[in-house]
Amino acid sequence: MAESFKFELVSPERLLLSEQVSAVVAPGSEGYFTAMPGHAPLMTTLKPGVVQATLASGTERRIFVHGGFADINPEGFTLLAEHAVPVEEIDVADLDQQIRNTEEDVADATDAAVRLRAERRLADLRNAKEALGF
Questions:
Q1: What is the pLDDT of residue 121?
Q2: What stretch or stretches form a coiled coil here (predicted)?
Q3: Which of 17, 20, 130 is closest to 75 using CA atoms?
Q4: Fewest CB atoms within 10 Å of the CB: 15, 20, 21, 128?
């Protein structure tokens, strides 16, 4: 069995990571899972959370993802995220402001569909803050 495998994390804005890795922990729709060399094929959607990739060199990279899907196959692991940001680039004050703004959106919503979208966004933002440990 190989000691590393190819991992790519891509968002619509950019390629965030394309490296040989020894392990990747990702937030699948059914919970966090760890992919290692020789992992069985898998395709799953993602929930908001932090992807932790251990590079073959031993260095760790942490990237927050929101939405998308993961595909593990014999060639490697590709994670296509709707939104992805390296954890070190996240501004906690900005995240807190987004939460406050979305709380106002929920309170101000007069239409049930608009309120539901705002409530889902608020839950995602709060889950993101928790996943990031802020």
A1: 87
A2: 92-119
A3: 20
A4: 15
